[in-house]
Protein: dTDP-4-dehydrorhamnose 3,5-epimerase
Amino acid sequence: MTVKQSPLKDCFVIEPKVFKDERGSFFESFNQKTFKKNTGLDIEFVQDNQSISQYGTIRGLHFQTGDFAQAKLIRVAKGEVLDVVVDMRPDSITYLKQFSYILTGENNHQLFVPRGFAHGFASLSDDVIFVYKCDNYYDKASESGILFKDETLNIDWKIPKKDQIVSEKDQNLPTLETFLSL
Ligand SMILES: Cc1cn([C@H]2C[C@H](O)[C@@H](COP(=O)(O)OP(=O)(O)O[C@H]3O[C@H](C)C(=O)[C@H](O)[C@H]3O)O2)c(=O)[nH]c1=O
Structure:
């Protein structure tokens, strides 16, 4: 496994070792000992999530606040996504900076997103199987987020407006300016 730092503090890309043969391929999608050895992080993931999305779906930007903030280890089992994170930690040297990365079922890359980051993704293909580990449990009351089309962040989701599929909940998330003023 190779760990590559992203431009955002504490956020990094993991490229697992993939074994290929005439049958197909195999890789360890998570190994606690290897993860700790290569990242120096001793994290206990407590919840695995999976979502399936059609082309054009944009989920996010989400995060849980306070005691229920979540670090996530993200990968795409099938399809292709543009994954986007924003550092929402006021004390961070990369505060309010954003980073996007293409995750696919082909490259098997993973993105580690620390607690205190907003996270979202756009489905660039149909039938995207998006799987991720969280180091804290889901807590509806702690859910928060930033509007995906926030003008300050000006994220290019790579999906034409006419093709965008966004939940009612996400369409009503606050802008960054509003969130920061709360
Ligand atoms: C996240 C979550 C949701 N749910 C329930 C709540 C809703 O009834 C239903 C769909 O939830 P939601 O529309 O919030 O799902 P996503 O839009 O995929 O949310 C996720 O998408 C972005 C990309 C993230 O990074 C977060 O992990 C998460 O917010 O699943 C649960 O029961 N447990 C959970 O952990």
User: Anything to note?
Assistant: The helical segments are 32-39, 168-171, 176-181. The pocket of dTDP-4-keto-6-deoxyglucose is lined by residues 49, 51, 59-60, 62, 119-121, 138, 167 (CB under 6 Å).
